[in-house]
Amino acid sequence: MSYADIIFKENCKQIIEHGFSDEGMNVRPHWEDGAPAHTIKRFGVVNRYDLQKEFPIMTLRKVYFKSCIDELLWIWQKKSNDVHELRSHIWDSWADENGTIGKAYGYQLGVKHHYPEGEFDQVDRVLFDLKNHPESRRIMTNIYNHHDLSEMGLYPCAYSVTLNVTGDRLNMILNQRSQDMLVANNWNVCQYAILLHMFARVSGFKPGELVHVIADAHIYDRHVDAVKKLLELEPFEAPGLWINPDVKSFYDFTVDDFRLEGYKCHEFTEKIPVAI
Predict the structure, then answer these.
(1) For residue range 100-130, what is the model confidence (pLDDT) as tens digits?
(2) What was the pLDDT predicted at 93?
(3) What are the Cα distances from residue 142, in Å, to 6, 10, 122, 189?
(4) CA 204 vs CA 94, 149, 163, 168, 256: distances in Å
(5) How far does the chain reach from its first CA to its final CA, in angstroms?
(6) Rounded to an integer, what distance in angstroms lies between the CA atom of residue 208 and that of residue 216?
(7) What region does 26 belong to: left with phi over 0, alpha with psi -120 to 50, or beta?
(8) 158 exposed, middle or buried (CB, 10 Å; 0-12, 13-18, 19+)?
(9) What is the per-residue pLDDT across 156-174, written as a single tens digit (0 to 9) for each?
(10) Using CA atoms, how far apart are residues 137 and 144, in angstroms rounded to an integer?
(11) Residue 130: which of 164, 106, 95, 86 has the closest Cα?
């Protein structure tokens, strides 16, 4: 069975059985009808995925793999904040009148800074260091820029990545301040597993471990019943991942250069509201 499903089920069981409810607190998120969106949460959840063993995608419900990668490339490759450049509409609720999410996510990755070796944005600095200084313990990005928070449509949830080379493997830590377990958990895991594969491919390493650190892992009050239904399902085996072997440059990857092989998942038709 898919290891991503095992991790998801264990995390959700812990949250439901032992989590803290913020019922009665003055929470920021709300539902479309205006009601406050309360959660049950666990603090400090850490999950590890070995990408040499399998690709960590859920089978308990369908993950829209192509849309997942499209958003990843929008942030990390295009370094965009314009929702018109996305195939999906997942960011529409946070866009301004110009259709941007302000100085958030991709915008932050694209800001250039001066280094002794020249001008780099955060992504190009990672690519440079992986190629020239793979032994470095400083290969990381951070998009939680306090100077720009007031101009962001949404404060970054997944905000920091640290890359570390161990032997012939490239490992990654993803730091996330907040995670909606039902809507976003495996979406983010799949995205950063793909990002790790991309960085490994273009720098000549094998993808190693993805370590996902979540400060506030939560289930929204109107999601609890749907999560409980998912917990009753038996996972399928994880699919294989195909990546176009002809792509050698980080900026040449497209959505069509990634494909799942043998992906089997449950048809989960439960309507899932999104808190905003």
Answers:
(1) 999 999 999 999 999 999 999 999 999 999 9
(2) 87
(3) 29, 29, 8, 18
(4) 37, 36, 14, 8, 21
(5) 33
(6) 25
(7) beta
(8) buried
(9) 999 999 999 999 999 999 9
(10) 20
(11) 164
Torsion over CA of 86, 92, 96 and 100, rounded to 10 degrees?
A: -10
Q: Which residues are catalytic?
A: 157
Structure token digits, residue 209:
């471990």
Token pair in block for residue 108? 């932050």
Q: Which pLDDT tens digit goes with each residue over 194-240?
A: 999 999 999 999 999 999 999 999 999 999 999 999 999 999 999 99
89 exposed, middle or buried (CB, 10 Å; 0-12, 13-18, 19+)?
A: exposed
Give the count of beta carbons closer than 10 Å to the beta carbon of residue 128: 15
Query: Six-digit token pair at 135?
Result: 């032994």
| DSSP string over 170-210 | EEEEEEEEEEEHHHHHHHHHHHHHHHHHHHHHHHT-EEEEE
Which pair of tokens denotes residue 9?
A: 């089920």
Inter-CA distances, 186 with 82, 114, 196, Å: 24, 35, 15
Q: Output the pTM of the full model.
A: 0.97
